[in-house]
Amino acid sequence: MTGSQIFDDMTTGGEPAGFDEPTDVDWPTTAYRLCVNGVAASIDGAWIGESLLHVLRERLGLAGTKHGCGQGECGACTVLLDGRVAAACLVPAVAAQGHDIRTIEGLSAGQDKLAESLTRALSEVLVAGCGGCAPGIVVSAHALLRRNEDPSANAVREALSGHLCRCLSTGRVVEAVRAAAAAYRADASQHDTANEN
Amino acid sequence: MATAPPTEAGAAPALAVRRPRTAVVMPTSLADAVAEVAARPEALVVAGGTDVMVDLNAGRRWPRALVCLNAVGEIRGVWPSDGEIVLGAGLTFADLMERRIAALLPAVAQAARTVGTPQVRSQATLGGNLATGAPDGDALPVLAALGAEVVCRDAEGWRQFPVLELYDRRGRSRLQPGELIVSVRVPVSSGIQGFLKVGVRGGAARTAVSVGLAVDPARQTATCTLGNVGPVARRIDHAGLWLAQRVDWEQGAIADPSTYETFARLVGDAIAATPEGQREEAGEHGARADWWVDADYRRRAVEVCARRALLRALPPSGWLEQVRAYQAKAEFKRYARSVAAAEAPVPPQEPGLRREPRETGPR
Q1: What pLDDT does A166 receive?
Q2: Which residues 11-40 on chain A approach chain B with CB closer than 8 angstroms?
Q3: Could you give the CA distance from residue A33 to residue A91 in angstroms, rounded to a whole number?
Q4: What is the predicted ipTM?
Q5: Which residue among A19, A70, A92 sits closest to B68, beta carbon to beta carbon?
Q6: How far is CA B314 from the centre of its chain?
């Protein structure tokens, strides 16, 4: 049996129970605009019940935000809505109109020193794992370090309590976030002294 | 829309004219929201979305229209007034954890902190939690312990009633179709209040059981409520009345140390007396069993939580003397010295001279 045959069997083996699209209703669709990473994006002809995660990944091609559980348990889909962490899979995309949406792409693309030091610290730590949880953790830790420049280990644990890492890197992640905070503070104070001189 | 709506007998069926109605509305005022919900009985009303989106993602629900309430600014406020606080139904649990609410309604802030993950708390709303009516919702037990009332509005007018009357004994909503929860009025008391919950994870813990306890020394009453022991949160009236008689209200303490155990047993026995209609799912002690918490565990967890809540609210009398006697012992003094040593400030080190223990050993 070839790989493609196995794949065919898996895909045609039937949808999961309960996942049958209604046939008597025409799918209500809608058009709206989102502000993602500071750029306006037009969504057209989208089903009204789509989650923000689906729209980001499938319609806007921003695949950095990961699909984990679709139930808000795992934190892989964390994005910032007006600067607050939110599970993108639980936000109706239409309800995100008028809000400032920041994804992992938006955080890591710019000249954001904080995201840079977080990504560096986490990539040093997460080398052994699959990395599926990493984008969400960067977003949550970014929001935490914006509020609190020097969080205690417990504060980090509480802020990241919504993230599951199946590769069991939890302890190292807490260390990495604190190391990133220290590196960011050192960097900022260097900048300050450079500016004074 | 496959079949035409029923028409009067004899009349020719009216031609179905499909007018392009927008399938999503985001009202910005409460009056608009009420009108929209009344005009679209088929619409799914979404506040934070953290409950309904799970169903939508899994394909269990296919709404024909959405009414999103998150743009209604009127229901997102906190209004402290004389002797009570009015909490808007659109407040998120992250809002409810804030300092000024934690200062006046500590149990509400405690409960809010245990709801979901930080990502969920920033979206999930108080009104949504009450309206969804999940048996393991955390807002209902804590608000019921505090004696809160809920304010609702529909196209015909306003209604106000105690939060526990939102659901009947089998957990069916008493909200009318088209009725929206606008706010919750919570009385402020000087007494100690607390909320305890048992779940499996530190974050995102689904409630196995929860216990709310509020003690009001001014009126000399105690109120105890339980969450997720049945289809809907319950207030255990006789346990509260019994407790109120056993409290030394002068000192705010409990004279008889056996009160704690007895109170816990009273509360546990109360959930053993299962209401009609759930007998078939009742376990040995009659407490509700479901797919992840069996009846014995549920009863035990309720008893432990009730005892702890009472210990935190009302200490045994003479506790101050007991603490002083303990502090006079040599054992405590040794402990205090070790704590002081551990908390002593570390002498500042030059940055960049951190020890790297891994580099020193042989490779």
Answers
A1: 84
A2: 16, 18-22, 24-26, 28-30, 32
A3: 15
A4: 0.85
A5: A92
A6: 22
| DSSP element (H, E) containing A45 | strand A39-47
Nearest-neighbour CA in chain A from B14: distance (Å): 20
B159-207 pLDDT, tens digit per residue, is 999 999 999 888 889 999 999 999 999 999 888 999 999 987 767 778 8
Provide the whole-model pTM.
Answer: 0.83
Which residues from chain A sit within 8 angstroms of residue B199, using beta carbons?
none
Predicted local confidence at residue A169, as pLDDT: 79
Residues of chain B with pLDDT under 70: 1-21, 202, 273-289, 345-363
Res B273: pLDDT = 62
B203 and A CB contact within 8 Å: yes
Residue A49 touches chain B, beta carbons under 8 Å: yes
CB-based burial label for B16 (10 Å; 0-12, 13-18, 19+): exposed
* Three-state SS letters, chain B: CCCCCCCCCCCCCCCCCCCCCCCEECCCCHHHHHHHHHHCCCCEEECCCCCHHHHHHHCCCCCCCEEECCCCHHHHCEEEECCEEEEECCCEHHHHCCHHHHHHCHHHHHHHHHCCCHHHHCCCEHHHHHHHCCCCCCHHHHHHHCCCEEEEEECCEEEEEEHHHHECCCCCECCCCCCEEEEEEEECCCCCEEEEEECCCCCCCCCCEEEEEEEECCCCEEEEEEECCCCCCEECHHHHHHHHHHEECCCCEECCCHHHHHHHHHHHHHHHCCCCCCHHHECCCCCECCCCCCHHHHHHHHHHHHHHHHHHHCCECCHHHHHHHHHCCHHHHHHHHHHHHHHCCCCCCCCCCCCCHHHHCCC
Summarised one tens digit per residue, pLDDT across range A15-34 is 444 556 666 667 789 999 99
